Amino acid sequence: MENLNLPTYSFKLKFDLQRKLIFDSIRKKYVVLTPEEWVRQNFIRYLVEEKGYPDSLIAVEKKVDVNLLPQRSDIVFYNKNANPVIIVECKSTKIKITQEVFNQIARYNMKLRVPFLVVTNGLRHFCCYMDYEKQSFQFMEDIPNYQEIKNL
After folding, report:
1. How is residue 26 annotated by DSSP?
2. Rounded-to-integer distance, Cα 102 and Cα 117, Å
3. Domains in the chain, start-ordered, CATH in brackets?
4. What count of other Cβ atoms lies within 10 Å of the Cβ of residue 131?
């Protein structure tokens, strides 16, 4: 798989029916290794190993109903009170981060109303802080560490 703009991690890989699979430590199962899944698995490791997020508070492909249609958010991180605080939308490295990608995560956030939105294609990462009181958002220099958001 492609090199990403993230630290290098090792993963459990295997083949099944001529498909390459990667072990998802959050879902506790092997999943098909697509380019988007490669970004998702690496970003999960980044959140856990570099940013200190407890993997027990992460959900992968979390169902979110948007306008009565079921959607799946790539990564949702919850605080210790089981409230969602970060949504991460992962794309393949071949997908450019465009307004449409931000629109997609914004639709998920209409339901979840989290303080932080993250979009990544493995090469570029964007993080926004949502200020609901002021009805505004602010791009951040970096993705916050768990210690910075654990009490939200």
Report:
1. T
2. 9
3. 34-149 (3.90.1570.30)
4. 11
Tell me how far apart the terminal alpha carbons of the chain are, to the nearest angstrom. Answer: 36
Provide the total of helices (H) and of strands (E) in the chain, helices listed first.
Answer: 3, 9
Digitized pLDDT (tens) for each residue of the chain, 152 residues in all:
789 999 999 999 999 888 999 999 999 999 999 999 999 999 999 999 999 999 999 999 877 666 666 677 789 999 888 899 999 999 999 999 999 998 888 888 887 899 999 999 999 999 999 988 998 889 999 999 998 887 77
* Contact yes or no for 6/122 (Cβ under 8 A): yes
Q: What angle do CA 93, 97, 134 make, to 5 degrees?
A: 140
Residue type, 5: N
Q: Nearest 5°: phi and psi at 73?
A: -85, 135
Pair of tokens at residue 20: 């390459």
